[in-house]
Design a protein that fits this description.
By secondary structure, the chain is mostly helical. Among the domains are: 41-116, Orthogonal Bundle (Arc Repressor Mutant, subunit A); 178-250, no CATH class. Helices cover 30% and strands 7% of the residues. The protein has nine helices and four strands, in the order H-H-H-H-E-E-H-H-H-H-H-E-E. Strands 1-2 form a two-stranded antiparallel ribbon. The longest helix has 16 residues, at 202-217. The N and C termini lie far apart (204 Å). 11% of the residues are buried.
């Protein structure tokens, strides 16, 4: 047996703890006090999710509320393509880690609401509320003061909506005229030849015919009335009868002014039978100088 050499160096001690496995991963952990996110092993070791989906879920859970996580934003942040990002988001939705819904804002704009769940199927933790502070004990000889309640402002009544203006009545003829009534009826019936949208019911024709008759009574030509009613129709015409009633009322032409009387024509020229002098008179005869019936009577 060889003698022991006391000057030989001893075997160096291992830096790895005795409980560390001889192969595989080893963890060197340090305690986080800020800027950290708690992730459950159900996500980190999920067997049904791809590595891209797990990493994306961890990134989303680390973001503050209100951060944008659209496909464009995530593609600009990571080297993965839009197709891989979109596929990972669908995986997280199917596994219950994400929920995306489309909502319409009061302004009419449609937005996507995204909710991230750090553990699907578990009720969220209640929000801790501050405990109310206990009242301070009253000291001896301390005056008691009662707070004066602040008067609440009286609510103002909501303003009443303005009443809608009454519709003007349809024009009506001043005197009956069977010919004008038949012409007005024919104008309304034949409007569909100008535009198929102006197809009126029999009741609408009977209601609007007096208004058309009022136009004709004001010496409006029938062709001009028909062109005026059928011109410039709006593209989304839904009620032709209401549109024609408005146009017949708003565009009613004024009546023509009364014709001025013709000036009186002078009497024709006549030739005097006595002196052959010309003079103006309604009938042939003698001029004023030759007429004996116009001689002044002698003074009394």
């Amino acid at each position: 047996m060889a003698p022991a050499n006391p000057s030989a160096p001893s075997r160096p001690a291992s830096r790895v703890p005795a409980s560390t496995p001889s192969s595989g991963v080893m963890h060197v952990n340090s305690r986080h006090t800020s800027h950290y996110t708690v992730v459950g092993n159900h996500l980190a070791q999920h067997r049904g999710l791809s590595l891209v989906a797990i990493g994306l879920a961890v990134h989303i859970q680390s973001l503050p509320a209100g951060a944008r996580i659209g496909i464009k934003c995530l593609t600009a942040r990571f080297p993965e393509s839009e197709a891989r990002i979109a596929s990972a988001l669908r995986e997280l939705e199917a596994a219950g880690y994400l929920k995306r819904t489309r909502e319409r804002l009061p302004s009419g704009r449609v937005v996507t609401r995204t909710v991230s769940y750090n553990q699907p199927g578990v009720a969220p933790c209640p929000v801790a509320r501050p405990t109310p502070r206990a009242p301070r004990p009253k000291r001896e000889h301390e005056p008691t003061s009662t707070p004066t309640p602040t008067p609440k402002p009286a609510p103002k009544p909501a303003p009443k909506p303005a009443p809608k203006p009454a519709r003007a009545p349809l024009p009506a003829p001043r005197r009956p005229d069977p010919v004008g009534a038949r012409t007005a009826h024919r104008i309304l019936v034949e409007l569909r030849r100008d535009d198929p949208r102006l197809l009126l019911s029999e009741a609408d024709v009977a209601r609007l015919a007096p208004a058309v008759h009022a136009w004709l009574e004001r010496d409006a030509p029938p062709d001009a009335v028909r062109r005026t009613l059928a011109a410039g129709l709006p593209p989304g015409l839904r009620s032709p009868a209401a549109f024609l009633a408005h146009r017949l009322t708003a565009c009613l032409p004024p009546p023509l002014p009364a014709a001025a009387p013709a000036p009186a024509r002078p009497d024709p020229l006549q030739t005097c039978d006595a002196c052959d002098r010309a003079f103006r008179a309604p009938h042939p005869g003698q001029c004023r100088d030759c007429r004996t019936d116009l001689t002044e009577a002698p003074p009394p």
